[in-house]
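Assemble and predict.
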Amino acid sequence: MIINGIQIDDTFAEAFPMRATRLIITGDTKRWAFTAANSMIGFSTSVIACGVETGIERQLKMNETPDSRPGMSVLLFAMSSKELAKHVLTRTGQCVMTTPTTACYAGLYSDKKIKLGGALRYFGDGYQLSKQLGGKRYWRIPIMDGEFLVEEYAYQVPGIGGGNFLILAKSRGMALRASERAIKAMSKVPNVIMPFPGGVVGSGSKVGSKYKALSASTNEAFCPTLKGLTHTELSPDTESVMEIVIDGLSEADIAAAMRAGIEAVCELGPAGGVTRITAGNYGGKLGPYHFHLRDVMK
Amino acid sequence: MSGLTLSLKEAPRQRVDLSALTSAIMDGKTAKEIAGLKLTLGNRKCSLGDIFKVTGRPGSRLVIDNCTDKIDGIGARWSDGSVIVQGNAGAYLGKGMTGGNIHVYGNAGAYVASAMGDGHIHIEGDAGDFIGAPQAGIRVGMNGGVVRVEGNAGDRVGDQMRRGVILIEGNVGSHCASRMIAGSLAVLGDAGPNLGLGMRRGTVLLMKPPSHLPATFNDCGSHALPFFHLFLSYIESLAEGNQTIDPSRDRLHRYAGDLAVDGKGEILFYNY
């Protein structure tokens, strides 16, 4: 398949099931809501070493948040319910509650609860108050800047992690420009995050390593400086490869994000320097979700 | 919508206890069987059909026409569907209710929502004393649900209530929120003396500073908190059509008490 002069490989991205939740973080100003969200999503690019993958889904307008203040919607994905619950609690406690003026609410609902305010309330040292309004319980924890308001529970839902595509380009600058363009388009798609820094992976990995201690290592088949040394996937004119990884709440959400990103890259045409778009997989053995690029772009 | 209508044949001279007519009792019964249901009238037993003309088919809706304040226990232990009261209701309206809703177009007597667990009660007129309070001998009052009174309410509103929300759009009498265990109580009019006496936890919201406050409440200052906005928005959504509440005015004065007991209760009010 060729779109606007850019080749789309006949391959697929392989993704796997995760557990996900959404949190709504609000603050007195957009700046402080963002500061809290940005702090919460720190060190959470990949479950390989971070334990959780997170990202800001979108910015919320004042009329979209429970307390009518500026807000941020954050999605968190982990490989197990236990791991998700651990990170929701520690990150809300250490990153959101500590940020001035913030409050934190569940952003989605299911029958699987994660303790949020129900555990953080003990910070109130006995002065905490609970309030049930409209079927939701909130905890009000007295803190030095006033009061930290937090919903008793967050809720977990099934999610999918590891949707991806690779942008192969004639130079690093061209790969970066195409990636930035893709991320800009993909950030408008709801229910997905691109958990890596700025949404782009500069060091895509393969599973395993020659070193026993490592579960992932550099993907040499896509390393441009190893073209002459290894079995390469790169054409002679490819000088840089960047990957975009997508976590989403459903297959349709990930497919929509991939389509938006690839379309944005292809709009650049051959003049943009992108030589090919491909995807990462493990031969279909690792994850049950397969996003065939040509089906996604149909 | 299928429903049953009870029309009072004549205004009873003695009190009628209708608490035997629950949504569970009505389930699967015919109108004739409902008419045969035994009720207490004064100090004797009678059939429901002796007092009410029964029409329609039992279903998700019960309408009581020409109702008077002598009819007690309307909607008691109600769990599903609607009760519509055309006229006034007596005491113990929605006692032990666990779901559904009750709408009274007139006034209601004492002990509205006593031991209520869930559901929604809307009274367009006034209500009597002890809204949400337990009956004598029971230690915990209203345990969930929402009560909205568009008019005034009597004394001891929210006495020993444990959970749920009571909204009084008019004035309340003395000892409002007395011995309150938890829950929320909003009064858009004036509150009488001994407000919050013996209050352990819970929130009372007033639109202006109370004229009396027990000495066992301490001033915690004026604040604009996200919770206040959330709370005011919620109360505003309950007080549908009432323009008194403006959630954008979310700076409230907070008094904590009653310090003679737990002291974790709060009285919030606008102080400007």
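The CA atoms of residues 18 and 37 of chain A lie 21 Å apart.
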